[in-house]
């Protein structure tokens, strides 16, 4: 919740700063207040929640760390590694270290586990998760919904290869020929897959009962392909595998159509070096302007 709080403040500030620039005195006061609050949260999170190679989940009411290298069970939790990056309150170095820890400790051929190692002893100071059978649901299963967040985090860090690696691991399509293990439709996300601490490792459970598809759509389109909305235009800022030559996207927004072509001649993951709109140069660090209703424009973005 701390990281989500920081993310929400940053989203609020985007609007407040826009209003402040337009001369709204109430927005000016909000900008001062919430910039200070965001700085405070960042400082506290750095001091209290960074564990050396990843972020802790938190503390029990008795002051015992949960999700720390100090623990014998539940050393690391998935959700807490991505959100400091998404919230923009950590450094590139710490972001990469936490994502590397996810890959090393939580990763698998079926997606990232929710936590590790699984709890095998009941501990009511930690809570309900310790009463769940190892490898099922909250206790070290591969929960589909939060698997989208490391994809977004890796894309924001500029590591497109790693982002798509995470995306591919849990993609149902890639289990099309593995029905003997999966046991569920290969065209729908499931709530969870049994984790490696369970004898049914990789078996899918509760198809359709999840918000995963919407989050994966967000991760793939807004952060890997990098086409997302801003207050003053359309952002095109991809984070893709280096092997990709590029891609094309048709984006309809506010009654206009943006035919977007991304070129990757230098085979990088991230970094926009030039933008043209209908053949006219546009600043590479600025969103593509909102087009009149009914317009159709060609946007060419070059990475390098």
UniProtKB/TrEMBL annotation:
<dbReference type="InterPro" id="IPR012341">
    <property type="entry name" value="6hp_glycosidase-like_sf"/>
</dbReference>
<dbReference type="Pfam" id="PF17167">
    <property type="entry name" value="Glyco_hydro_94"/>
</dbReference>
<dbReference type="InterPro" id="IPR005194">
    <property type="entry name" value="Glyco_hydro_65_C"/>
</dbReference>
<feature type="domain" description="Glycosyl hydrolase 94 catalytic">
    <location>
        <begin position="2"/>
        <end position="226"/>
    </location>
</feature>
<feature type="domain" description="Glycoside hydrolase family 65 C-terminal">
    <location>
        <begin position="232"/>
        <end position="268"/>
    </location>
</feature>
<keyword id="KW-0808">Transferase</keyword>
<dbReference type="InterPro" id="IPR033432">
    <property type="entry name" value="GH94_catalytic"/>
</dbReference>
<dbReference type="InterPro" id="IPR008928">
    <property type="entry name" value="6-hairpin_glycosidase_sf"/>
</dbReference>
<dbReference type="InterPro" id="IPR052047">
    <property type="entry name" value="GH94_Enzymes"/>
</dbReference>
<dbReference type="Pfam" id="PF03633">
    <property type="entry name" value="Glyco_hydro_65C"/>
</dbReference>
<keyword id="KW-0328">Glycosyltransferase</keyword>
<protein>
    <recommendedName>
        <fullName>N,N'-diacetylchitobiose phosphorylase</fullName>
    </recommendedName>
</protein>
């Amino acid at each position: 919740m701390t990281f989500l709080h920081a993310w929400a403040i940053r989203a609020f500030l985007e609007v407040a700063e826009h209003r402040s620039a337009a001369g709204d005195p109430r927005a000016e006061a909000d900008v001062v207040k919430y910039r200070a609050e965001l700085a405070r949260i960042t400082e506290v999170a750095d001091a209290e929640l960074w564990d050396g190679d990843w972020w802790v989940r938190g503390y029990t009411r008795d002051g015992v760390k949960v999700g720390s290298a100090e623990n014998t069970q539940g050393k690391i939790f998935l959700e807490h590694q991505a959100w400091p990056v998404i919230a923009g309150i950590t450094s590139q170095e710490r972001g990469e270290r936490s994502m590397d820890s996810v890959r090393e400790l939580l990763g698998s051929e079926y997606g990232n586990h929710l936590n590790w190692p699984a709890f095998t002893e009941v501990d009511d100071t930690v809570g309900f998760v310790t009463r769940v059978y190892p490898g099922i649901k909250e206790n070290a299963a591969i929960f589909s919904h939060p698997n989208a967040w490391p994809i977004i985090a890796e894309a924001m860090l500029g590591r497109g290869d790693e982002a798509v690696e995470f995306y591919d691991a849990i993609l149902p399509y890639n289990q099309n020929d593995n029905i003997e293990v999966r046991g569920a439709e290969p065209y729908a996300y499931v709530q969870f897959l049994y984790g490696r601490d369970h004898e049914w490792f990789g078996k899918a459970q509760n198809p359709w009962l999840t918000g995963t598809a919407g989050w994966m759509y967000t991760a793939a389109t807004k952060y890997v392909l990098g086409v997302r909305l801003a207050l003053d235009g359309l952002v095109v800022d991809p984070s893709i595998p280096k092997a990709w030559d590029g891609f094309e996207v048709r984006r309809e927004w506010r009654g206009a159509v943006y035919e977007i072509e991304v070129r990757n001649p230098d085979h990088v993951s991230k970094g926009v070096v030039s933008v043209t709109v209908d053949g006219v140069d546009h600043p590479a660090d600025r969103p593509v302007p909102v087009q009149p209703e009914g317009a159709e424009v060609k946007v060419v973005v070059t990475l390098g």
